[in-house]
Amino acid sequence: MTLAVTLAHAFGDFTLDVGFKAGPGVTALFGPSGAGKTSIANAVAGLFTPREGRIELGGRVLLDTAAKVNMSAHKRRIGVVFQDGRLFPHLDVAGNLAFGARYAPRGAPGPDRAEILALLGIEELLSRRPGTLSGGEKQRVALARALLARPEFLVMDEPLAALDGPRKDDILPYLEGLRDRARVPILYVSHSVSEIARLADRIVVLREGRVLRAGPVADVLSDPEMVPLVGVREAGSVFEAQVLGHDADGLSRLGVSGGTLILPRVDADPGKHIRIRVLAQDVLLSLESPKGLSSRNILPVRVEALHQGAGPGVAVSLRLGEDRLLARITARAAAELGLRPGLACHAILKATAVPRGDVGAAHE
Ligand SMILES: Nc1ncnc2c1ncn2[C@@H]1O[C@H](COP(=O)(O)OP(=O)(O)OP(=O)(O)O)[C@@H](O)[C@H]1O
User: Are 220 and 213 in contact (CB under 8 A)?
Assistant: First the structure.
């Protein structure tokens, strides 16, 4: 099921002029505050009508301003989950869920109620009022309510933004489960690189109402040109790894296409495929294979491209087997090492280069 979107609109000085496709899987809409993410999500959901636009979902035309087609929100079969959940406070959880189910067209495919309750772990919450739920529980109920309407597509606008760090980590596995088992494509609005690196298959990067870049998450996030947009602290590469084993000293061995990584224990069984994000600032480069170094992660790589930032840093894109690794080093170091495309060298990763929250399930 593919969503195809083109939109143009002006709010005073701000103009939105975008075109992109989303689905199957999770497509992230990423950009700084004011880039136009929420306006796009609202237009897709049918909550805002742009001056010009066309939105098609799996061949159904939801909006075509030229042809004066503008399907109402509830006919679009698009489930929406907002940052604040927006549960009905006077209804208990079961009542909120029943409200979602009312919109499900007869015979529409999708997981049944019991599966949805189990997927989101809310079986025990049915008699509770929203006011008594934690932020994470509210969001899980909002997700279940949206899914019970059997949508063909889900739009989530910063669904984790109201949650604190530990609560975000609690709910991310549910979103991974939703992605892998409910099989409803998702447009996921976020300005968190970490969330996007964990969940999304594709990313649409927005800036000032325009699409700057769109493509597979691993390609876009490991592109050195993206570092200024993503932010130097957040920049990093995303790739899949297979858990090879857990060692008695609390470390796990992970197989990646270009070698083996040793990281603090990851929460996945041997044999499982996981997705990891390696922060560019935690990758060092060496021309020789270093000896007597504390790091166990020394990987042979080849320089692909360098991108000089505005400051003293250079982003270096490296080929690691089938994957791309991003390193951020100083321009002085890059010059002294003579880094240039094609050069073979060694990447050194600290065991802490993959933050805990940046280990997720690989998309099944
Ligand atoms: N109804 C409106 N009236 C006037 N201006 C609006 C309206 N809705 C959005 N805008 C403007 O459009 C621009 C994009 O807003 P939008 O909320 O889509 O961005 P965003 O990327 O979702 O930002 P954030 O991450 O802060 O939510 C902003 O400059 C905003 O002020």
Answer: yes
Contact 339, 316 (CB under 8 A): yes
Q: What is the mean pLDDT of residues 93-115?
A: 85
Give the span between the Cα atoms of 131 and 87, in whole angstroms: 9
Q: Which two tokens stand for residue 184?
A: 């409803």
Report the half-sphere exposure of 356 (CA within 13 A, side-chain side). Answer: 9
Tokens of residue 16, six digits: 């939105």
Q: What is the distance in angstroms between the CA of the first residue and the CA of the last residue of the chain?
A: 17
CA distance 119 to 116: 5
Complete domains list, the chain, with CATH: 3-221 (3.40.50.300), 236-361 (2.40.50.100)
Residues recorded for the chain: 364
Report cis status (omega within 30 of 0) of the bond before 24. Answer: yes
Q: Which residues line ligand 1 (CB under 6 A)?
A: 11, 14, 31, 33-39, 191
Question: 308: part of which helix (H) or strand (E)?
Answer: strand 297-308
Residue 85 pLDDT level (bands cut at 50, 70, 90): confident
DSSP three-state, residue 63: strand
**CA-proximal residue: ligand 1, atom 9 (nearest):** 39
Ligand 1 centre distance from Cα of residue 41 (Å): 11
Ligand 1: distance of its center to the CA of 54 in Å? 20
Phi, psi for 231 (deg, rounded to 5): 100, 135
pLDDT at 24 over 80: yes
**Both tokens assigned to 305:** 């491209």
Q: What is the mean pLDDT of residues 102-122?
A: 84
Instruction: Give the separation between CA 21 and CA 211, rounded to whole angstroms.
Output: 11
pLDDT in tens, 232-271: 888 899 989 999 999 999 899 999 999 999 998 998 999 9
Ligand 1 center to residue 50 CA distance, Å?
13
How many angstroms separate the CA atoms of 82 and 291, rounded? 51
Tell me which DSSP letter residue 282 carries: G
